[in-house]
Each structure stands twice: as C-alpha cells, then as structure tokens.
Amino acid sequence: MVTQRTNNVVEKMNKGEKAYGMNMIFPSTTIVELAGRAGFDFVTFDSEHGPFTIDILDDLCRIADMAGLTPFARVPNIEDSTILRFLDRGIMGITGPHIVDGARAEQLAAAARYVPRGRRSFGSGRGAYFGGPPSGENYMNHMNDHILVTAQLEDVQVLDNLDDIFSVDGIDLYASGAQDIAQSMGLPGQPTHPDVLAFEKEVRKQVEAAGKKMADEVMPSARAVSIFLEGSKAYLDAQRGNRYSV
Fold first, then answer.
1. What are residue 45's phi and psi, to 5 degrees?
2. pLDDT value at 243 more than 90
3. 10 Å Cβ neighbour count for 178?
4. Buried b / exposed e across 22-59, counting CB within 10 Å, b at 16+?
5. How high does pLDDT run on average in the chain?
6. pLDDT tens digit sequence for 44-95
7. Which of 39, 41, 96, 207 could cross-link to 108 by cystine, CB 3.0-4.6 Å?
8. Residues whose CB falls within 8 Å of the CB of residue 119, separated by 6 or more in sequence, listed in order
9. What are the residue boundaries of the structural domains of the chain, listed by start?
10. What is the pLDDT of residue 156?
11. What is the DSSP string of 35-46?
C-alpha cells in the first residue's frame, strides 16, 4: 500500500517548529541525497534562474522522496500550465515570483490546489502516483492541505497592494527578494542599499501586523553553492594555515 506524501514543513509548522532546507540553483540528484543524509527537512529547486528541465525534476523529486526530503520549487512564472508541470512531478511547495498585487496572488494560489480550493488540473504523473492508488478524492484533499504556497514580494509597487495580497486565501507564506527590489527601485546591483533594507523591513512589518509569516521565519534555507564554497574555503584555509606548522 502506498502512503500519502506529507510535507515536512507543514508538519513542523503545525507543531510550532522550524524546518530547515537547502536551496539549489543547479540540478544534482547526489546533492539531494546528501542533503537528506545530512538531516535537512526540505530542498528547494530555483527553477526561476536554474537549468531545471521537467525530466530532471522527476528524478530530483524521486530522490527527495527517498531521502526523506520535501521538494519545493521557485517557478519561472505563475501561469497555471507552468505550476502544474512542477506539481505533477511531486513538488509540494511553490514559490511564485513577482507577486505585485492581489490578482497575481490569486492566480498563484488557485494554480496550486485542486477544487474547491483552486483550479489545479489532475494529471497522472508521478506526483499523483501515476494515476493509481492512492490518487483520488482523498489524495486531492490531502494534497490541498500539504501544498505550501509562498508569494515573493520583490517589487516596489507591492507596498501599495499589500492589503489586496493579504486578502487572498491560499497564500501560506511570503518572501522577499533584495536583488529585484533594488532593480525596481532604480538601484541595480545594490541589494544592501539602505532604501532596499528599509523596504524589506516595512514589508516584513506589515506581513507580521496582518498575522502572517515570512518564509524565513518558519523554513530557513541554506544555499547549496554557499555550503560548498564556504566549506571548501574553510578547509583550504585550515590546510594552508597548517602547511608549514611544526
């Protein structure tokens, strides 16, 4: 008997605990397996900027399942057809970029869940157990509860539309994006500019005032690239520092 997949992040959120993840901007089934062995709860594939094809996502999600990780993805756009192809692979968390108003928030939320909470189409891919058990009504209800939807607030105009965005049912978490915020403010390449930091602080303040949460509050994530580079540099610094010791 096949057991329904559960979302590690949702499970931990329900317990008031944090979940920890790894963010990947390149595909690697080996890194996904190692992330599971290291004890991470989830892995996120940055498909907005990384070279993730549909066939490799099938394998990445398959390895994530086997490694005990919940697979998430930042999608390149929020079209229903795009989000569906990720969900049909077995992705259980969607981050939608450039959610600037309530209409885009509604589009993102509706694409991620089945009726009656959305308009996701049913497909017989690996995400739905290839159309066999346990897919069906119970599966759809279960998945509606276990899909996590994050709206990325990374454009200066969102400050004028936050009330509309917050009014949309089906958005679970909110995220920032300093690089694109900087560009929208006419400050390209300056993600730590005081105006960008002030913008992020104000958005976070309003998210919290609305009784909602930023993603990094409940599911902090480390970049796989940073883990490799920082670990490698630390190793080399230690070795080179000891090279001539006696």
1. -100, 115
2. no
3. 16
4. bbbbebeeebbeebbeeebbbbbbbbbeeebeeeebbe
5. 95
6. 999 999 999 999 999 999 999 999 999 999 999 999 999 999 999 999 999 9
7. 96
8. 80, 110, 111
9. 8-242
10. 96
11. HHHHT-SEEEEE
Q: CA angle 219-129-19, nearest 5°?
A: 10
- Helices in the chain by DSSP H: which ranges? 8-14, 29-38, 54-67, 80-87, 102-112, 137-146, 162-166, 178-184, 194-209, 215-218, 224-242
Phi and psi torsions of 26, nearest 5°: -140, 150
pTM of the model: 0.94
- What does R_g of the chain's alpha carbons equal in angstroms? 19
**Long-range residue pairs from 120-124, CB within 8 A, at least 24 positions apart, any chain:** 120/80, 120/83, 120/84, 120/87, 121/80, 121/84, 123/84, 123/88
Give the closest residue to 125 by CA, choosing from 78, 77, 91. Answer: 91
Taking the C-alpha atoms of residue 149 and residue 134, their distance in angstroms, rounded to an integer, is 23
Name residues whose C-beta falls within 8 Å of residue 15's C-beta, 6 or more positions apart in sequence.
Answer: none
CA dihedral 92, 73, 97, 190 (to 10 degrees): 140
Architecture category of domain 8-242 in CATH: Alpha-Beta Barrel (3.20)
Judge whether 50 and 24 are in contact, CB under 8 Å.
Answer: yes
Q: Which two tokens stand for residue 224?
A: 């796989």
